């Protein structure tokens, strides 16, 4: 830093000398060397002496800063150093004025004593000119040193606690402008003394030129100081705008580079920013917690129930949103699907959404048609909220055996039935949204689905998405998308690609987006549909012989950790041996159940250690039924049980998929489904003895 100060001092003295030379040559028409005569070496010596004193003083003042640069100073040291940096330009200016004035007065007093009283006017004029030169050099040193100190302060990154205040932007402006004014007055006085010494009148032209010259210098320096202040204000404005506009954490604080009003504004802004950041972090944690709770309330996005593959995607506009959907198993042959949209966005909508989701699950299990469920939900919401909230909901109850959908809507957008050839039909069925009229009645429609049909539910955030030109996606865009849906599509991947295309066209959107697709992928058959009861009954004398004893039940639950399934399989095998001591199916049951548990751990729960796999086993006199539950979305059993697919897996060198082949070969029958506990794989084993094998 000392080399920069040396450069500032040298440049300032040089610039001062040049300005004085130009002023005397062009305005007074007298060269400065003619005025000073043989004093040039003495003047140069004085300049060198003053620069040396300024450098020594700066070194003493900056030594604490040099001592702890590169380390982290304590708050008291930083505060003291900052005060020193703020004051140093003023101190250098004051020292220069004192030394320059003393040197000029001493030099001319000595010259005046030698030349006598006859040249007093000339000596006085020269003294005024040199004092003017001192003020000009002082202004340059003050301005340049202030710029250097501001850069050093910026590197220190001072905290708000180290800011002392007490200064004003008016101080440097007044100092430079008053100093320039004094320099101009001294030069005018020099001009008057020179005119008196030569018995000449003062030229109005020279007078005006000197005044204009120093006025220009004063305005130039005034503009420079003002520009620095404006830069600080502009930086403050940018930070304030970022604080208002940005929806993210602001990590960079405003540098406190001055001890005036701008520095005080920077301190206040940093304090405000710190408080906003704390509040933002707290809100972010709350929103993250709310998001996690909301996501846990929603069912998995990919599910399989009977012959239906269900694909659901919910994209909230904010961290949490008001869109929701649900899938609830009602019995072995019925399940309900629901989609809803709460008016508004953000946390209020998310809270109302969570309440409605739980209310729906409670009401749908109380039985009743979709219209009756919506009516009960509507009455409860009207009693609790009055007119402060409204919700649109669409509810469908699907009968797996008939492939029918009994649908009712409370102000929700019309769903679509999309055929495999790309044709579609909008289902016109709607009533008032929930929350408007406590006595509202909700219309129901029974819809028949065919093989390959897709029942599509969605929210308004999908059709109201605008592109850059302001064009809405609309129902036309939605129906154009449906027309591209052909048979055999992987709907999960297809819906994901669709939403990605939506984001590319319209951006993230200004509303939540939710879509639910029910894909009727095959013919439904109940769990025992493929079990040959007649043949088994003939072998054992009667149907009653199969179920003439009550089933006994046991249950195991383990975390999703590979290897733990062996203990469950061992206990199950020991229990099979206790109940069926003469049976030969023990090892088959153990192996099949272990493979089903591995499948549930790896593919259902995706090896998440906090997810559980539950095994329920029921053993009767002639049949054993084992259910393996996981917490995932499931898979489609008809595809998994395809004979050609099984043969390919069996013949393949790749061991992936052999588990299903093993289950299929060991169990007498197996199926998948979903009930209140989640997705399950169900295995059936007939009681076999050595005699059965021999026969």
From TrEMBL:
Keyword Membrane part of the UniProt annotation: yes
Protein name stated in the entry: SpoIIE family protein phosphatase
Source domain of life: Bacteria
Naturally occurring in which organism (per UniProt): Paenibacillus solisilvae
Keyword terms, alphabetized: Hydrolase, Membrane, Transmembrane, Transmembrane helix
Pfam families to which the protein is assigned, alphabetical: HATPase_c_2, SpoIIE
InterPro entries: Bact_Sigma-Reg (IPR052016), HATPase_C_sf (IPR036890), HATPase_dom (IPR003594), PPM-type-like_dom_sf (IPR036457), PPM-type_phosphatase-like_dom (IPR001932)
Stretches assigned to the PPM-type phosphatase domain: 302-520
Transmembrane portions of the chain: 44-62, 92-111, 174-196, 202-225
């Amino acid at each position: 830093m000392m080399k920069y100060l040396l450069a500032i001092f040298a440049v300032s003295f040089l610039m001062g000398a040049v300005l004085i030379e130009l002023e005397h040559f062009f305005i007074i028409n007298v060269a400065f060397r003619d005025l000073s005569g043989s004093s040039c070496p003495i003047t140069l010596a004085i300049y060198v002496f003053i620069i040396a004193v300024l450098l020594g003083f700066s070194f003493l003042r900056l030594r604490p800063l040099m001592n702890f640069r590169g380390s982290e100073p304590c708050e008291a040291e930083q505060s003291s150093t900052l005060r020193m940096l703020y004051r140093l330009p003023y101190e250098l200016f004051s020292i220069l004025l004192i030394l320059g004035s003393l040197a000029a007065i001493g030099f001319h007093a000595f010259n005046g004593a030698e030349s006598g009283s006859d040249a007093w006017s000339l000596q006085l004029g020269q003294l005024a000119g040199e004092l003017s030169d001192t003020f000009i050099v002082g202004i340059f040193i003050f301005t340049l040193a202030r710029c250097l100190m501001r850069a050093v302060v910026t590197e220190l990154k001072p905290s708000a606690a180290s800011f002392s205040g007490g200064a004003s932007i008016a101080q440097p402006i007044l100092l430079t402008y008053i100093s320039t004014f004094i320099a101009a007055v001294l030069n005018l006085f020099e001009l008057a003394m020179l005119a008196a010494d030569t018995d000449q009148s003062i030229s109005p032209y020279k007078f005006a030129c000197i005044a204009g010259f120093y006025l220009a210098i004063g305005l130039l320096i005034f503009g420079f100081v003002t520009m620095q202040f404006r830069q600080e204000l502009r930086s403050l404005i940018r930070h304030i705008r970022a604080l208002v506009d940005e929806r993210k954490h602001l990590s960079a604080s405003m540098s406190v580079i001055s001890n005036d009003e701008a520095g005080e504004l920077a301190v206040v802004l940093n304090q405000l920013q710190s408080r906003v950041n704390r509040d933002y972090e707290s809100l972010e944690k709350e929103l993250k917690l709310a998001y996690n709770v909301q996501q846990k309330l929603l069912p998995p996005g990919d599910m399989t129930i009977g012959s239906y593959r269900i694909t659901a995607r919910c994209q909230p506009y904010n961290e949490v949103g008001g869109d929701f959907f649900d899938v609830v198993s009602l019995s072995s042959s019925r399940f309900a699907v629901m989609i809803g949209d709460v008016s508004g966005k953000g946390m209020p909508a998310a809270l109302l959404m969570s309440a409605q989701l739980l209310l729906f699950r409670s009401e749908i299990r109380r039985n009743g048609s979709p219209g009756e469920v919506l009516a009960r939900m509507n009455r409860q919401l009207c009693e609790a909220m009055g007119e402060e909230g409204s919700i649109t909901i669409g509810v469908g109850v699907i009968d797996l055996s008939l492939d029918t959908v009994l649908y009712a809507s409370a102000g929700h957008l019309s769903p679509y039935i999309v055929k495999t050839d790309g044709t579609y039909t909008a289902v016109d069925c709607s009533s008032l949204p929930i929350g408007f009229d406590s006595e509202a009645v909700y219309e129901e429609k029974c819809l028949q689905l065919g093989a390959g049909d897709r029942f599509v539910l969605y929210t308004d955030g999908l059709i109201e998405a605008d592109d850059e030109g302001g064009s809405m996606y609309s129902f036309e865009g939605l129906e154009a998308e449906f027309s591209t849906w052909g048979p055999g599509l992987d709907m999960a991947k297809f819906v994901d690609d669709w939403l990605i295309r939506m984001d590319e066209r319209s951006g993230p959107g200004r509303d939540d987006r939710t879509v639910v697709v029910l894909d009727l992928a095959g013919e439904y058959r109940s769990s025992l549909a493929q079990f040959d009861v007649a043949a088994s009954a003939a072998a054992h004398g009667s149907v009653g012989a199969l179920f003439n004893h009550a089933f006994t039940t046991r249950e195991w639950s383990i975390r999703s950790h590979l290897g733990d399934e062996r203990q469950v399989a061992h206990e199950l095998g020991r229990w099979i041996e206790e109940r069926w001591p003469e049976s030969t199916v023990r090892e088959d049951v153990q192996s099949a159940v272990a493979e089903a548990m591995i499948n549930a751990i790896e593919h259902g729960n995706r090896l998440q250690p906090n997810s559980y796999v539950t095994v329920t086993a029921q053993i009767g006199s002639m049949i054993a039924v084992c259910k393996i539950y996981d917490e995932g979305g499931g898979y489609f059993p008809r595809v998994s049980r395809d004979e050609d697919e099984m043969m390919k897996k069996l013949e393949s060198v790749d061991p992936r998929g052999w588990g299903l082949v093993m289950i299929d070969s060991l169990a007498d029958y197996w199926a998948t489904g979903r009930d209140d506990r989640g997705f399950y794989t169900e295995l059936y084993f007939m009681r076999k003895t050595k005699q059965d094998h021999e026969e």
